[in-house]
Amino acid sequence: MLNVPFLKKELREYFKTSKFLILMLLFLFFAIMSPLLARYMNELLGLISTDIDIVLPAPTVTDAWAQYYKNMTSLCLIVFLIVMTGSVAQEKNKGSIMLVLTKKVSRFDFICGKFLAGALIFTACYLASLLVSGVYTYILFDTFSYSGLTVSLVLLWLLGLFYIGLAILASVLSKTPTIAALMGFAGFAVLNLLNIVTPVQKFNPAGAASLVNGILAGTATQGADWICLISTSVGIAAVFFASYVVFKKQEI
What residue numbers bound the domain in which 132 lies? Predict the structure, then answer.
């Protein structure tokens, strides 16, 4: 059963340390910048390259979403992952983990609370960024939707949850936040390198980052989105279970 008091304590930590504010501002910044860059990129390039005539196609709503996905997967999710890698390792490093585990908090409660707190914070930041980016996109392009938008947004949300689970696993395996951050980033890099292999992409939990662009461009194969949805969901369960199993056997 979910340990609600521990989950509330974890959520309070995000507000007390300003992590939530920093993450929210980061997500909102790129939510605003993505449609703006897509809309005015041609003008910016024209100002920079005054001696060269550059003829580019007129920007469309898909350019705005492509920029949004790029910023989310290459910047926001990396920062969120790095923040989450300190969730367990930091408590090990400070020695506060023993105090927590002796206050009617089981090891499953501990891992579950860390994951759910991260998932709730990520979901709040993600939804806020979607709302802001959608409004700006509509203002600049008179529309904000395209075929496949809903499944793309769900894929991106699941990708965020997967990286939260990966970060917690790295944090469980590490003794210090620095090592955990390095391990988390290494896992991120390896999974994204696997996206280069197209047949593997739809079975790779991190393949959602490439698939959303394929859906946007209309090049994604039929059924690839559902395969990626399933593989990412399985990946979330796998990293969560691995975190719990390792943590349960660790001597603190």
Answer: 4-249
